[in-house]
Amino acid sequence: MHAKVQLIGQVETQALYDPKWVRYSLIGIAVGFITLFLLSPLLLVLYQAFSKGLQAYWNALSEPDGLSALRLTLLVAVITVPMNTVFGVVAAWTITRFEFPGKNLLTTLIDLPFSVSPVISGLIFVLLFGAQGWFGEWLQAHDIKIIFAVPGIVLATIFITFPFVVRELIPLMQELGCEEEEAAISLGASGWQTFFFVTLPNIKWALLYGVLLCNARAMGEFGAVSVVSGHIRGMTNTLPLHIEVSYNEYDVIAAFASASVLAGLAIVTLVLKTFLEWKQSKAGFSS
Asked: What is the distance between the alpha carbons of residues 233 and 67, in angstroms, rounded to a whole number?
C-alpha cells in the first residue's frame, strides 16, 4: 500500500512539471468532449421533454402505456438485480477461494455477455424458448409462455447483466486473500459467521458498486429485450422500448419525457457511483 501511495505521488509530482499549455489543452479537450457528447444530449433531452410545458410533460409520463413501461422496467430490475447479486457473490467466492477443474472456463463464460451482442443474446432465448425453439413444443403443451412475455424479458436481462457484480468482486477478493477468513474459522466461527462478519464488510463497497452497475444496465437494456419482448403495448414494452415506439410514431413529447426519466436515473446512478468509488478508494488506502 505504501508503494501504491508512493507511485501516485510520483505521478502527481511529474504532472507538476508539464507545461501549462499541455495541462490546459488536455483539460480543455476533456471538458469539450464531455460537453459535446454527454451534457449536450442530456440538455437536449430535457429541453424537448419540457418544450410544450410542464402539463404536457406530466401528461406524457402519466399515460397508461408509459406507466406500464415504467412498472415493467422496475419489476425486471427488482427481479434481476438480487438474483445477479447472489450469483455474483457465489461465483466470486468460488473462483477466488477454490481450485477446481474448469475454473478458467467458468471465468471465461462469465465474460460472455460482454463479448456477445445483446441482440444475439435475445435471439438465443428465442431459439431456445420460442414457438419453434428447442423447448417450444413442451412449453406450449404446458401453457407456459416465456418469449413475448415478462419471463423472457427477465431471462434476457439476467443474461446481459450477470457479469457486473462478479467482475467487481473477483479482483478485490483476490487482493484481500483469505487470511482473515482462515483466522476467523480457526477461532471457531462458522462459515456464515465468517462471511457476514469478515468477508462482507471487506467487500461491501465493491458489492454495492457492482449492484449499482447491474441495476443501471437492467433498466436501460434495449437490444436483448427488444428481441424477446414482442413490443406488446402495455404488457411487454419496457421504458427504452416505449421511447422507441413513441419516437417512431412522432410522439416527441412522450419519447423525450420517458427519456428524461432514464436520464434522471442515470444521473442518480452516476452520483452514487462516484460516492461508492470514493468510499472504495478510501477503504483501500486505510487498509
From this structure: 11
